[in-house]
Design brief:
The protein is of the alpha+beta class. Helix content is 27%, strand content 37%.
Length: 109
Amino acid sequence: MNTNKPIVSIALALVCAAICVGCYSTGHEVKTDSLKKLEAGVTTEQQAIELLGKPTSRTESSDGSVTLMFMHYTIVPIPFHPEGSSESVTVFFDENGKFKKYTSSQTKQ
């Protein structure tokens, strides 16, 4: 009689469950095509939010200008060596609420 069979079955089930969990993602991913639709001096903050989605943060400066930040993180749970990436998009508006420019950065770990 093989007494290891239940232990092997449980171990195999746990490995399969861990693989099925997949990657973890949080935040809001901004598509490059959406950013290209922003028009300097034309697009308003509200229009940008409708196009890009809800920002992670909103900052208003003393001169009335506004900055929206969108963050997106992805983590792949590889045993003993998790991998991930992050993307940050910052959108700037002038004191009249019109789009000025954006910056974006990506990192892979």
